[in-house]
Write a structure and sequence with these properties.
Layout (H helix, E strand, L loop, with lengths): L16 H11 L3 E4 L10 H8 L4 E6 L4 H4 L8 E4 L4 H12 L15 H12 L4 H11 L4 H8 L3 H15 L4 H10 L14
Parallel strand pairs: 1-2, 2-3
Length: about 200
């Protein structure tokens, strides 16, 4: 699926931890998508970090029932994507991770009232302006305030004001939570065309 998706180039596929570490070290990919069931993955986790350095972002691709395991200190610093995520959510998450955003799902103990959260999200849709929805969509794509301002042809300070209002309306406190929420709501945001002259 990723091979057919624009913007992704699959440079290696590995079946064990040692070959994966070597591929990361020699090929320096932007992202390494890892299956925690790979033999010796946990034992060699420090080697993965050393091989990745500051360039390669490590992503654990796991079923929902294993989220608490991979959210433990054993995998501190990695992003986590659940295998239950849709293809679109997977692609959007990987694009965000490539841009520097760390993504982790809430632990099972943090999911106290998912139905209430969904209800709050639906209610928030009614109070968000079109501009706020545009900004949410661009944040979910991993763009910085400066890049969003350039795309929408508005000042960085105005973006900050919009984000402050968005955080208040949605009752969240950071861009990572906003991006995760946007991915879960496919109808948020509208297509945005750059206003810059070509």
């Amino acid at each position: 699926m990723l091979g057919a998706e624009g913007g992704f180039d699959i440079v290696a596929t590995c079946s064990d931890a040692a070959s994966c570490i070597e591929a990361i070290r020699t090929l320096a990919p932007d992202i390494a998508l890892l299956d925690p069931t790979i033999p010796e993955l946990v034992a060699l986790k420090n080697s993965f970090g050393a091989a990745a350095g500051s360039r390669t972002r490590l992503v654990l691709y796991v079923p929902a029932e294993d989220r608490d395991l991979v959210l433990s200190d054993a995998f501190d610093g990695c992003s986590v994507i659940l295998k239950e995520a849709s293809a679109d959510a997977l692609v959007q998450s990987l694009r965000q991770i490539a841009s520097g955003v760390r993504i982790v799902p809430p632990s099972s103990t943090d999911q106290i009232a998912p139905a209430a959260q969904a209800s709050n999200s639906e209610n928030a849709l009614t109070v968000l302006t079109d501009r706020e929805r545009q900004i949410i969509r661009l944040v979910s794509e991993g763009l910085s305030n400066k890049e969003i301002g350039r795309r929408l042809n508005i000042a960085d300070g105005t973006i900050k004001v919009h984000l402050h209002h968005i955080f208040q309306k949605l009752e969240i406190s950071n861009r990572t939570a906003l991006a995760a929420l946007a991915i879960s709501q496919s109808d948020w945001g509208t297509p945005v065309k750059s206003t810059e002259s070509e």
